[in-house]
Design goal:
By secondary structure, the chain is mainly β. Helices cover 0% and strands 29% of the residues. It has one domain. This is Phloem protein.
Length: 76
């Protein structure tokens, strides 16, 4: 059992974006022990997965890169 101290009862808004373009936002409980439920009229169904190394992970969004451009070492 994972102890997610402080995250038991409060859904969090998670967002990720790419360089001023597309962004994705989700609402989720960060405690993996909380089942999906409704909180203040917001339906929250996703919860983090416990990885084999004990860390938690959650999917925030998906992004498709249609142009695989290689960078030269001086661009990094």
């Amino acid at each position: 059992m994972i102890d997610a101290e402080g995250f038991q009862n409060c859904p969090m808004e998670l967002s990720v974006g790419v360089g001023g373009g597309h962004s994705s936002t989700k609402t989720s409980f960060l405690d993996p022990n909380v089942e999906g439920r409704q909180h203040n009229r917001v339906v929250v169904s996703q919860r983090p997965n416990v990885r084999s190394d004990g860390w938690l992970e959650i999917e925030i969004g998906e992004f498709f890169n249609s142009w695989p451009r290689r960078r030269s070492p001086d661009e990094c």
